[in-house]
Amino acid sequence: MSATPPLLGERLSKVFQAPAVPLTVFSGVDIEVRRGERVALTGESGAGKTTLLYLLGLLDRPTAGRIFVDGADVSGLGEAELAAIRNRTIGFVWQRNTLLAEFTAVENVMMPLLIRGEPRAAAREASAALLEEVGLAARAQHLAGELSGGEQQRVALARALAGSPSILLADEPTGNLDERTAALVIELIERVHERRGLATLYVTHNPNFARRAHRVLRLEGGRLLPG
Questions:
Q1: DSSP readout, 48-105?
Q2: Phi, psi at residue 199, to the nearest 5°?
Q3: What are the chain's domains?
């Protein structure tokens, strides 16, 4: 593992303004995910797990604290700069896969590459290779809406890997899947993680998934605790 973790949060706090009193989701949270490490984030519904993932994925800003990506403090960057870092450094897999149902599997995977300005032919070739990596080469030309839930999550994983990110974030990636399909997706995430040496953080309520991580953290009462 590298000396500098690809993902580091220092003293992170998130407070939402409410009509009566502000709602503090968590305060003073420290978290790091090192290269080659899989970390599971657990906790009860409403504890703030997805909120923390959004902060670390640069999709929202902390009320206080700093976030470092590949050793660089990104806390003060503008929206365009954060978007560029997300596109090149961080891959996301969500419980609801957010695929575009009217586009094919390969077109969905191409999207991040096209956004960064890759030529269409090169983006298609790279995306086809990613679909092969997740075992869906035969489904590349099928519309995303025609795929099963497990297949859609595999496409979502392929899309998350477009551009070779160093960080993979996942929010309940098996939450909408049956037990057998969830196990296959878990195994695939683990294989991809190991093959690419990613820093992987995933939110899960699945105890079997959590136990397979290198570390388990639990968000409880606004504090981050060993799981």
A1: SHHHHHHHHTTSS--SEEEEEETTEE-TT--HHHHHHHHHHHEEEEESS----TTSBH
A2: -100, 110
A3: 7-226 (3.40.50.300)
> Residue 80's pLDDT band (boundaries 50, 70, 90)?
very high
- Contact (Cβ atoms closer than 8 angstroms) between residue 105 and residue 131: yes
Residue with tokens 């290779």: 129
| CA-wise closest residue to 10 among 62, 47, 49 | 62
Q: Three-class SS of residue 167?
A: strand
| Percent with pLDDT over 70 in the chain | 99
**Residue at 106: amino acid letter:** V
User: H or E element: which one contains 13?
Assistant: strand 7-16
The pLDDT value given to residue 1? 43
Token pair listed for 129:
């290779």
Q: What tokens were used for 195?
A: 């093959």
Secondary structure class of 133 (helix, strand, coil): helix
